[in-house]
Write a structure and sequence with these properties.
By secondary structure, chain A is of the alpha/beta class. Helix content of chain A is 24%, strand content 24%. Chain A has a domain of 232 residues: FAD/NAD(P)-binding domain. The two termini of chain A are 29 Å apart. Classes of the chains: A alpha/beta (490), B mainly alpha (58). The structure holds flavin-adenine dinucleotide (FAD).
């Protein structure tokens, strides 16, 4: 019997673990190590963050689901990996620290035959002074929707702002990115339009100023260098699509901005042209930059080999081309296909946890040398697809032997669907539904836009909003492993 | 004196320079976004397209 250990029970790790458990049956063991007791459908945190959904509607307990699937579950966080074992044993292992109430703080080692790192991002609030609390957590000046608990807090603060407006006090809402190297603009984009929608619903829109701040060099970059889509017989840039939506809703934008400091009611920023400025706010939701979760790696002799296994940003190195050089030389083929670690072939990284070869958007920096560009998004659909491909590879390695062919899932050959909705009512909400194919543009295959414009599209309306509702229920149904779950695509 | 012609959808163009230089949907485009029959048709089309994108990605 061989053992697969999956670190992280989020979108990617949950996909890997549940498919591996299904395909391997009881012949092999699947272990999940994750600090959270609940699974969270993160995209719906946006609705929690405006008070339209509860935390309970977007989360469920992992333990019964893993028990049903025959997965061994440790509510713990991984601290380090010893891929060569230790002096008296060749067996690789991970060291974990429990986070469950009954065992909190206890450490333990778990041996593995195969390891999948799907630990997602560290929400690196402390990268921007005042955005964090100095201890790695969110500070008190802004709110976040990155976790369900953050979103609950955001909704409470939002409600207070609405009450103030009802009492005649004007409020300014600042939504966007909290650092020059952030990703996840899509989440902030969705949140700002939900805020705007709710302000209208509450009858206080005229008492509010709503403003976007982001590190994108143009509105609609979304960390993917923008995209082009067919609209009304034209092929247009997402810049026009996004600017149109912002202008229609009366939302001003400040782009090319590195948020350098946050204080109570004020952010300081530096722009791509080097100028510096300040923006006041009463309510701010600023997405933090992402980093790897800080796993360490040690060799057999106990020496630190973190730099061999992980990139400087903390994400795990995989089969990507990390030596692509300047922007002009970047190719779609730089992107990883199997997500296997090049040094230790029994280790893989899935979802946000893998180190991308480079960013997707054009690299930019201010004349002062401050990099201001979005880092690449690895959204839900790619994270799920990669998680499943990695599960496939590991299962084949376990059942067919070390020479089994690995499964591939390059982000330069896969699409992503994103639905950013505003409002929750079935007939009162609207959404911008977007698909992009492929996520990483391939200018050799699609000269011009880098993407297939038959399958890269975006439109606004009720239809996308209905899809968002359906996705919410479908993915929670699937993640709970309810009957037919394998038929629902990632 | 000629009568004032206020088109509600066009008001935002004047709110700032950036708004003035983009496109803003007019009344018809806005109506279609919430027209249940049209949106049902779009729902089917978007779903088919998304399913194709999903199947090309696996
Ligand atoms: C507000 C918001 C809205 C979004 N909306 C969309 C959307 O509409 N569509 C879309 O496609 N994507 C969306 N995304 C992105 C999507 O949520 C991510 O792409 C996806 O969650 C990434 O999956 P992952 O498994 O890599 O990471 P995660 O889902 O974050 O999972 C990582 C897991 O690892 C665990 N972990 C952390 N540290 C450790 C450790 N040391 N040891 C073990 N486990 C650890 C975490 O607790 C977590 O369970 C959104 C993101 C946000 C924040």
């Amino acid at each position: 019997m061989a053992r697969l250990v999956v670190l992280g029970g989020g979108v990617s790790g949950h996909t890997t673990a549940t498919f591996a458990a299904k395909w391997l049956g009881s012949q092999h063991e699947v272990v999940v190590v994750t600090p959270n007791s609940k699974w969270n459908w993160i995209p719906s945190n946006i609705w929690v963050g405006v008070g339209e959904m509860t935390k309970e509607e977007v989360t469920f307990d992992l333990a019964p689901v893993y028990a049903k699937a025959g997965i061994t579950y440790h509510q713990a966080k991984a601290l380090s990996i010893n891929p060569e074992g230790k002096e008296d044993s060749d067996k690789p292992f991970v060291t974990i620290e429990y986070t469950s109430e009954d065992k909190a703080g206890q450490t333990e080692t778990i041996e593995y035959d195969y390891l999948v790192n799907a630990t997602g991002p560290k929400l690196n609030f402390d990268a921007t002074p005042g955005l964090g609390d100095g201890n790695g957590q969110m500070g008190e000046n802004t709110v976040s929707v990155c976790t369900a608990d953050h979103a609950v807090h955001a909704a409470e603060e939002f409600q207070k702002a609405i009450e103030k407006m009802k009492a005649g006090e004007r409020q300014k809402f600042l939504i966007g990115t909290g650092h020059g190297m952030c990703t996840c603009q899509g989440a902030a984009f969705e949140y700002i339009f939900n805020i705007e929608h709710e302000l209208n619903k509450a009858g206080v829109r005229d008492m509010a100023e709503v403003k976007w701040i982001s590190n994108e060099s143009f509105l609609g970059d979304f960390g993917m260098g923008g995209l082009h889509m067919k609209v009304g017989g034209y092929v247009v840039s997402s810049k026009l699509f996004a600017e149109s939506l912002f202008a229609e809703r009366g939302v001003e934008w400040l782009i090319g901005a590195h948020t350098s400091k946050v204080e109570a009611g004020k952010v300081e920023y530096e722009l791509l042209d080097g100028t510096k400025g300040e923006e006041a706010f009463d309510f701010a939701m600023l997405i933090p930059p992402f980093a790897g979760v800080g796993l360490k790696a040690y060799n057999k002799a106990g020496e630190d080999i973190t730099g061999t296994v992980f990139a400087p940003n903390g994400f795990m190195k995989v089969d990507a081309n990390y030596n692509a050089g300047a922007y002009e030389n970047w190719k779609a083929s730089d992107w990883p296909r199997t997500y296997q670690n090049p040094t230790y072939k029994n280790m893989f990284a899935a979802g946000i946890a893998f180190a991308p070869p480079h960013i997707i958007s054009k690299p930019m920096s201010s004349p002062n040398g401050t990099p201001i560009n979005p880092t690449p998004p690895r959204t839900g659909m790619p994270s799920g697809i990669i998680g499943k491909a990695v599960a496939h590879s590991v299962c084949d390695l376990m059942t067919k032997g070390e020479d089994a062919k690995l499964h591939e899932a390059s982000m330069a050959e896969m699409g992503a669907a994103c639905v950013a909705s505003a409002g929750k009512g079935v007939f009162s909400g609207q959404a911008a539904a977007m698909t992009v194919y492929p996520v990483v543009p391939d200018f050799e295959k699609y000269p011009g836009t880098g993407r297939d414009t038959d399958y890269t599209f975006g439109e606004i309306g009720l239809a996308g909003h209905w899809i968002k509702h359906i996705l919410h229920h479908l993915f929670i149904y699937k993640a709970k492993l309810n009957p037919g779950w394998t038929l629902i695509p990632e | 004196m000629s009568e004032k012609k206020v088109v509600e959808e066009e008001i935002n163009f004047q709110k700032n320079d950036a708004f003035n230089l983009t496109m803003i949907p007019g009344a018809f485009a806005r109506k279609m976004r919430t027209c249940v029959i049209w949106q049902f048709i779009r729902f089917v089309i978007i779903n088919v397209k998304m399913i194709i994108v999903v199947s090309k990605s696996h």
